[in-house]
Amino acid sequence: MEYVILVRHGESMTNRSGILSREMNKYGLTDNGIEQAKFTAYQLKSMNFDMIISSPVLRARETARIIANETNLKLKIDDRAIESDFGQYEGMHINEIPMKPREELGMETFESQQARMIDLIDSYNGRCIIVSHAFPIRAAISYYLNMDEQESFGIEIRYASMSAIDVKNKRILSIGSLLITDRIKKRFS
Ligand SMILES: O=C(O)[C@H](O)COP(=O)(O)O
Fold first, then answer.
1. Does domain 3-187 match CATH 3.40.50.1240?
2. Any idea where the domains of the chain sit in the sequence?
3. 131 strand-pairing partners
């Protein structure tokens, strides 16, 4: 891939209820999340992409469909963009989960999420949008910043935000932005 914009889905019922879930067909976007996705789609419409790729999880698919409709891009579902695997804590409220490292809880590790996101980015050509989830997106960004989970802990990936990466030069152009700048638009013109 030459350039990629990593988009987090819009606000969903998981976020509003504090539930951690990678359920494929539950917890869609809230009305707020739909509006957030539409605003991101509106900005991306003025740029040139080859494809949009999405996590198979409903909230990401709904966000990607909104963007695909606005940009007339072909939408492809790719499991490598999926939400973190929460293991035995799937579907639980965030407050019910012990404050321990993911490894100790039997959840998918930061390294595993980073590896599958980078494998995904490196397996496509051209300029793409990838719709995924906060943690996998942060893990991918950390790869280009050469940071580990703790060092990148402060990176916030907001709903429907856009993180632009110049993949061929391994350079981060924006992190968790809600607005696309003109100089980033120029790279996708
Ligand atoms: O940050 C996390 O643990 C999750 O990635 C949040 O998931 P979401 O981006 O699907 O809300």
1. yes
2. 3-187
3. 7, 54
